[in-house]
Design goal:
The chain is an alpha/beta fold. Helix content is about 40%, strand content about 15%. The chain is built from 17 helices and 11 strands. It has a 6-stranded parallel β-sheet with strand order 3-2-1-4-5-6, with helices on both faces. It has a 3-stranded antiparallel β-sheet with strand order 7-8-9, with helices on one face. It is elongated.
Length: about 375
């Protein structure tokens, strides 16, 4: 049975690309109705990354509206008046110039929760600077020794847009908190969510202590990393805690290190990480990955296969967690990391049809003359 925690909540999504649509996708999965306003040419993500666009926008309703025109702005204000939450991802000041800023809408719609997602936030010297995930991660310190480095000591940038996703998740969480507070106050509020804020926290939460990496040098961990097995496949091993270290030594027959009192504590092993990891790679390179996974599981050593993306859907654990499905057109989609009973089963993409947009606009309270003028 699907739990619709946000049934009766309507969200107006003015955002494009990833952070905002990810936030509203989470709200949609929790039962909210999400109406996505897109420019006449659509969300650029639809062309840049059709897979991502599909995953983020299934189950939403869509209206294409030109916010650069007075008619489009008036229509957007009226639509906002029928919504409980508004999410926008423009640079600071843009919605105010469009007559769609928080103060513009709040005076007539006191209960509206208004969430602005921007790169650097609504204040500060960089507030109007453009940027992407990589820029925020770099400024926040996340490219200084926390990523792997190549032979020229340049950070190797990962393919997962961590800060985009972190920001969208934080926005959704703050919106839920604001909806909860609305129940007590009866008044909405403004949420300023910045991607840089997420980047700073994520970069420093694990690596910002006195032993943090400096000058771009990678801080390695002992018995922690990705290792290649005899068949060329890779597995990750993470034997950080003392009990896992002892289990690893017993598995590999490292009696010398098992009895070495200087290696029984993590802080001491960290100083010898290169020596430990080199010996571990030599050992793992002598047997196939599946053999190692069975041995590691049996010994209780934290380890996992390093999958290519194509391998992931077929993994037994992933199948058990029901993380993939097909949409109404038979396309393969990944589902958000919510409890299985909370996920929405409507995996239909927004319909790009004039009649559907007209019906949606009527449902939102716009009169026939305005609708005809908007849709031409």
């Amino acid at each position: 049975m699907t739990t619709n925690a946000l049934t009766g909540t309507t969200v107006l999504d003015l955002s494009l690309q990833l952070p905002g649509p990810y936030a509203t996708m989470l709200l949609r999965q929790l039962g909210a109705r999400v109406i996505k306003l897109e420019p006449p040419d659509g969300d650029p993500a639809c062309e840049i990354d059709p897979w991502m666009y599909r995953v983020l926008n299934v189950g939403k309703e869509r209206i294409k509206l030109n916010l650069r025109t007075a008619l489009g702005q008036r229509a957007a204000r009226q639509i906002a008046g029928a919504c409980d939450v508004l999410v926008e991802g423009f640079r600071p000041g843009v919605t105010t110039r469009l007559g769609l800023g928080y103060q513009d809408l709040h005076k007539d719609h006191m209960r509206l929760i208004y969430c602005s997602i921007s790169g650097y936030g609504q204040s500060g010297p960089h507030r109007n600077r453009g940027g992407h995930d990589l820029n925020f991660l770099g400024l926040g310190g996340g490219l200084s020794g926390n990523y792997a480095v190549d032979c020229a000591q340049n950070p190797i940038v990962g393919s997962i847009p961590m800060i985009d996703l972190a920001t969208g998740g934080m926005a959704a969480m703050c919106i839920l908190a604001a909806l909860r507070r609305l129940e007590h106050t009866g008044v909405g509020e403004y949420l300023d969510i910045a991607m840089l804020d997420q980047a700073v926290f994520w970069s420093w939460i694990k690596s910002g202590g006195s032993d943090r990496a400096t000058n771009g040098q990678l801080r390695q961990e002992a018995a922690y990393g990705v290792f290649q097995s005899a068949d060329g496949k890779h597995l990750s091993v993470a034997a950080i805690e003392d009990k896992f270290w002892r289990a690893l030594c017993q598995l590999l027959g490292w009696e010398d290190w098992l009895s070495d009192g200087s290696l029984q504590q993590y802080s001491a092993r960290k100083a010898r990480n290169q020596e430990i990891n080199a010996r571990l790679q030599d050992a793992i390179g002598k047997k196939p990955r599946d053999v190692w996974m069975a041995l590691m599981d049996n010994a209780g050593v934290p380890a996992a296969c390093v999958h290519n993306l194509d391998d992931v859907p077929g993994d037994r654990q992933v199948r058990e967690r029901q993380l993939f499905a097909t949409d109404d057109e038979g396309n393969f989609v990944v589902l958000p990391p919510l409890p299985a009973g909370w996920r929405q089963t409507n995996l239909r993409l927004p319909v790009d049809e004039r009649d559907a947009e007209a019906a949606l606009l009527r449902d939102l309270g716009l009169d026939a003359a305005v609708i005809n003028e908007l849709l031409g």
